[in-house]
Structure formats: structure tokens, C-alpha cells
Amino acid sequence: MLPRIAVMGRPNVGKSTLFNRLAGRRIALVDDTPGVTRDRKETVARIAGRDVLLIDTAGLEEAAPDTIPGRMRASSEAALRAADLVLFVVDVRAGLTPSDRSFAQWLRRHGKPVLLLANKAEGRQGAANALEAYELGLGAPLLVSAEHGDGMGELHDEIRELL
Ligand code: GDP
Ligand code: MG
Questions:
Q1: pTM, whole model, 2 decimals?
Q2: Which residue lies with its CA nearest to atom 14 of ligand 1?
């Protein structure tokens, strides 16, 4: 079986952009509307010289009265259970939100290997903004820009170490 890597995080942090970049093709739906990627998308991707199953997940939403977030949460939990490695994405431009923090806590409880990605870290402010991500208790964040491709070499290296 291929190692499974799940890309997770709240809506709009850049999960699908990262998924597309790692996949090398445009598969996932990218949109400015938070939470627009409602279904899991999977593809085989070549990462650090080996084939992996890459899974783009819907953003994990906090419990909400309507049923769509509930389904998104169920989908995220299934993705997490099946994953060998989680790429947990936060948005350093928006800064940490309560949703990021509770998501991080939820991930820590499950004990799966997690790589913390500080996305949207391009430009001069990127590194400074990313410092906040240490607060999540998931180790040192890896600074990336899914949109611009920054940090992808390091990301491949870290994935190789963890798989
Ligand atoms: P998702 O909801 O987590 O899947 O997020 P998307 O991949 O759909 O991206 C949400 C928005 O963030 C889109 O407008 C993307 O173009 C933008 N975005 C994604 N990655 C980056 C990045 O590295 N830098 C910047 N500045 N914007 C990004
Ligand atoms: Mg998406």
C-alpha cells in the first residue's frame, strides 16, 4: 500500500494550492471562498523519489448548526485515521485563529506524525509572521508558499524523513 499523506487545516489556508503543487497537476478545486473544497481529493504523487497517496481534505470546521460542516468534520476524521502523515497547514498572513488552535490540539491528541506548514510565508514578513506557529505545540513550522513554490525542497526532505 502507498503511504498516505493527508493535507489538513481550516478552510482557506491553502491546502488545495499545496495539494496541486505537490501533485504537479491541477486537480483540487481552488477558490477564494473559505471551505469551498468540500470533498476529499486524492492523487498519487511522486514525493522525494517515491509514490505516495496525497489526500486533500475539506477544512475541519467547528461544530455548526447546519450539516455540511458536520460532514466535513467526519471526512477529516476519516482522512486522519487513514493517514500515515499529516501536513497541517496554517496561514501566516491571516495569523492563528481559534480554529487553528483547536485543530492543532485535536491533531496532538491523535498522535499521528504531523508536519506543521506555515503557508503564505513568501515575502519579507513571512518568517516573522510564522513565529506564532510555534504556539501550536507541533514543533518548528516549515515555512512554505504553496502559491509561489517556496520551501518545496525542504518539504520533500522532511516528508522523506517522516515516511
Ligand atoms: P483551502 O481552502 O485550504 O484549500 O485553500 P485554497 O488552496 O483554496 O487557497 C485559499 C486562498 O489562498 C486562494 O486564494 C489561494 O490562492 C491563496 N493561497 C494559497 N497558497 C498561498 C500562498 O502561498 N501565498 C498566498 N499569498 N496566497 C496563497
Ligand atoms: Mg481546498
A1: 0.87
A2: 32
SS3 content of the chain, % helix, strand, coil (to 5): 35, 20, 40
Query: Does the predicted interface ipTM exceed a cut of 0.90?
Result: yes
How remote is the CA of residue 29 from the centroid of ligand 2, in Å? 6
150 secondary structure, DSSP code: B
Q: Which pLDDT tens digit goes with each residue over 115-157?
A: 999 999 998 888 888 899 999 999 999 999 999 999 999 999 9
Distance of CA 129 to CAs 53, 65, 119, 154, Å? 31, 33, 10, 19
- 11 Cβ contact list (under 8 Å, min separation 6): 34, 35, 36, 37, 58, 59, 61
Please state, in angstroms and rounded to a whole number, the distance separating the CA atoms of residues 156 and 138.
18
Nine cell digits for residue 155? 518539504
User: Which triple of cell numbers denotes residue 111?
Assistant: 498522535
Domains and CATH numbers, the chain: 4-162 (3.40.50.300)
